[in-house]
């Protein structure tokens, strides 16, 4: 099933993200967690892709299993920047062979040592290059792309970032999923600006439940997200008590989702990060709201 067919529903639905194991031995831990999340029957599950393709086999295996064994639509991520055209083409064919119809087309992060390189002769420079190739392939994929309410870290300013986003949509991106954010007002502001710029495709806000204090540092480093005072106070108070921090982080994310839905956003993506208990608790907190 193509995800775009689900994204115009008027009731709240949640999707969950999982990531593939980095090594064969880690598969034994990751696999049961993924299955447990799939049993919660989210509206879809997305499976990330290691930039450069190191874990590409597992991305596909997991996305195919979610769909085949649990009937949950899956979205396979695919990055391009560290890959050759040949590798990407093989992966596109493998995605189609596995029966997956939804692809999140990403550039991927540029490895640190290559940031200053002249990129003219790279096979792929931006996600838009991959989106165009997916559209030109013989397969009828539903294509998603990433967007950044707080501006992509490499972009000179929001106006240019939104212009680049528009190019992705014009190239064939049918929906957008946001980077995590902890202040919903930043998302509402971003939505206003992209709609004004003529971007009309559905936007799925991405919410990351922070369940331990270390995650806060990682999240800020990774995404550059702004931490509102209300959130900082919570980390200060509960950061040294893992159980309390987990409960408070899930409550904060739940609150964000309720506010998003109250403001008209019906599809919310939860960065559940292979933690079934987090996915389950968020779903339970919203049990009288989801689907209504
Ligand atoms: P792009 O859309 O190409 O944008 C990257 C930068 O280039 C932006 O600053 C943009 O403004 C600029 N730009 C775009 N086009 C042009 C152009 N034509 N000329 C000049 N500048 C341009 N990473 C992974 O490795 N694996 C994953 O599975 C993964 N999943 C993700 C899911 C989501 C929802 C998000 C938000 C991010 C994900 N990432 C993942 C991280 C992502 O790969 C990085 O954020 C990466 O740095 C940018 O990817 P992009 O697809 O947004 O790139």
Fold and architecture overview:
The relative contact order is 0.14. Helices cover 45% and strands 13% of the residues. It has 292 residues and is α/β, with parallel strands linked by helices. Helix 1 (27-39) runs parallel beside helix 2 (56-70). It has one domain (3-290): TIM Barrel (Alpha-Beta Barrel), CATH 3.20.20.220. Helix 5 (158-171) links the parallel strand 5 (142-147) and strand 6 (175-178). A 9-stranded parallel sheet has the order 7-6-5-4-3-2-1-9-8. Flavin-adenine dinucleotide (FAD) binds at residues 48-49, 51, 77, 79, 106-109, 126-128, 146, 152, 154-155, 161, 164, 168, 177, 179, 206.
Looking at the overall shape, the CATH architecture is Alpha-Beta Barrel
Strands in their spatial order, largest beta sheet: 7-6-5-4-3-2-1-9-8
The CATH top-level class label: Alpha Beta
Could you tell me the radius of gyration in angstroms? 18 Å
Number of helices: 10
Give the SSE string.
EHEHEHEHEHEHEEHHHEH
Distance between the termini: 22 Å
Secondary structural class: alpha/beta
Please give the number of β-strands: 9
Kindly give the count of domains: 1
Average pLDDT confidence is 93
CATH fold description: TIM Barrel
Main pleated-sheet profile: 9 strands, parallel
Q: Could you tell me the strand content as a percent range?
A: 5-15%
Low-confidence stretches: none
Shape, principal axes of CA atoms: globular
What percentage of residues falls in helices of 4 or more residues? 40-55%
Bound molecules: flavin-adenine dinucleotide
